[in-house]
Amino acid sequence: MGCGTSKGDTENGPQPERANIGGVNANNANARSTNRGTYRVGRWAADTPASNPAGTTNGTPARPAGPVASKPETERAPVEIEKEVTAVKCKDIDFKIDQNSKEHHTDQYEATKTWLGVNAEPQKPWFIVRRGQDFVIDLCMDGKFDKDNHDVKLTFEFGANPKPGEETLVSFKVSAKDKPKAWGAEILSVTGNDQSTVSVSVATPPNCKVGKWTLNVDTIVKKKDGTVEVLRYAHPNKVYILFNPWCEDDQVYMPEKDHREEYVLAETGRIYTGSKKKIRFRPWNFGQFEDFVLDCCLSLLDNCGLAPSARGNPVQIVRKISAIVNAPDDNGVLVGNWSGNYEGGTRPTKWAGSVAILLEYCKTKKPVQFGQCWVFSGVVTTVCRCLGIPCRSVTNFSSAHDTDGNITLSAYMDAEGEYIDSWCSDSLWNFHVWNDVWMCRPKLPPGHDGWQAIDATPQELSDGVFCAGPCSLNAIKAGQVYLPYDGPFIFAEVNGDKVIYQQQVDTSWAVQKIYKELVGYKVCTKKVLSPDMEDITPLYKFSEGTDEERAALKVAVSHTNVYSGLNIDYHGHLENNENQDITFLMYERDSIVVGEDFDIDLIVSNQSSEQRTLNVSLGATVVYYTGVYKKNVATDNFHIVLAPGEKEKKVSITVSPADYLDHLADQTQMKARCKVRVEETNQIFVEEDDFDLTVPDLEFEYVGGDKNDLHVGQPFQLKFGFTNPLPKPLTQCMFIVEGPGLQKAMEYKIRDVPPGEKAEQTVTLTPKTPGEKNIIISFDCQEPCDVNGIDSVYIEE
Question: Which single residue of 120, 421, 641, 745 could bond 738 by disulfide (Cβ 3.0 to 4.6 Å)?
């Protein structure tokens, strides 16, 4: 029988109309293909015994002749229909922000949640990932996606004028066959019927440009007539791709986990200031993960003149950062001011972190007033860590500022032992703060990877711009100042010699003194995951006086553009040691509290068998931390006669608060000065001793609660303060409080504080996130009382 009624039809009811594939009416199949699309003709399974021969009709396996019972339609093998594939379009992208942020170590960025822009306007969460590491996204389609018939192409674009040749325009089909360390993607799964969700894993190369990328999704289908239909979806939000210290192939890869936690993820830190004998720290809120900070940092890169094609190179990026953080050349972030007059701006000691500075800069689009070296360094640390570059603030005590490029700190005195100020352009800063950044230097000889020094404080021009570095610490240590960038200047900061030239009675010049161990007394930074200080001087220089250290100096001087006027092999015998039979010892002070009296003492001894007459001048001078004199506040002269062989005669003066308080600079630093001339031999002795006056520490008290029982969302009160050490009131007083995850920078004005009374404030803080948090507080007033402090708490869920 044909395809008429059969026993099966009778038992199961009429069967749906279908193609006759038994060879009885093949033309019907062709006729129906015009009405319902093109069929791909299939065959039934196992209904025909394998031993039963089957003919074929039109290339189709034939059914056995004779009547055959029909099966229910639901039990038939599906008939594949060759028909036009419908195009589908991506209508949205789920960036799976929570999942990807955790995997890419970007979940601390507040921008990955709903956040506030610079003008406090709510912003949608950003998609922030790190280069060289896969991420997963879901493509939401407006129809059913068939991976056998549909293709997907992703296009990433970077910058204002993306180009394939600059790797700022990248387009590729989603495929399972990806090249290693390159752009690529593969489909992980397809779910859903009417509107499919296509889960895609995307790979970015470890040298990918850092910043904001746009993402377009093309869905592609090939038509029967051979044409291709492409439907594009342009996602309105950006993809933010950062450096990846976790990726072994990234140039900024940092292998040690605890180092990454400190130099990339730590939001607060300590910047060291003071003097070599009294090192103290300033707590600093880097705040690299706060709301708008990433947006601001990327805007800095957009505006620093760096071509988009160079935005994957950390060497070029950190060099630009060292320029854009200062203002002189490019309308950068901070205006430097060391004058002591801060009218129209903020006193540098008032800042407690980078966030308030970057907020003001982004809102006003104008340089922020004012900063000094530790402020520049704090902002650089914020910008680098925010972009994913490991970074730390570094302090050099007794830091040379060499202005003429001869790697020697030169000073000149007349025959009476007075400095000739107009000739002394070099200076010795009590301390100077810059930054180290971690990266490979593939264009340098082997052995120069790792820490690189950069400096944003505008001191000297480099390639016509106020910037410095990056310069390999290994190159600095070895004296290889010819390697880029700015080796001579940075080497001189840590390892130059100070040479004092003095005019003689006959108008000739002689070397009066060479200080070989004065410059670069100590280089330090915050210790990894610890509140303690770490001495990193050995990374910058060999031990003073060793053959290696002198050899490095020789190499450095020989490669400077301005060759040193001194023999580079100079030793102590070049000093003018004739007729020096009087020995001098200047007593050095370790700690003096601001507001107290202090003495300046000199011990002299006569080593000769003859009487000696000494003209002695002792004095105290208020100085800026840069070594520049501000005010001579005390001087006394003595005429002393030493008997033959007389030993350890003491000369001293007392300096009172009335002498110095009204003249102190922000850092409360002073210099004791001594000048002696021996009448009989014309021996000259000049010595200086830098020291700073200490201020009180902040005291903390947790009011009405337990410091060890703090929870997210539960407010707690903190009281802090100190006692005024000055013999006069503190006026126009203010506390500044901030702490990531606890408190945006807030100012609290308080009353004037009389002598001996307490300046204090109570604040209420509400933790936003769990974990260890640091509360940073600075105090500002019109008087010299630079007080600040930090306290740590642990917040439970």
Answer: 745
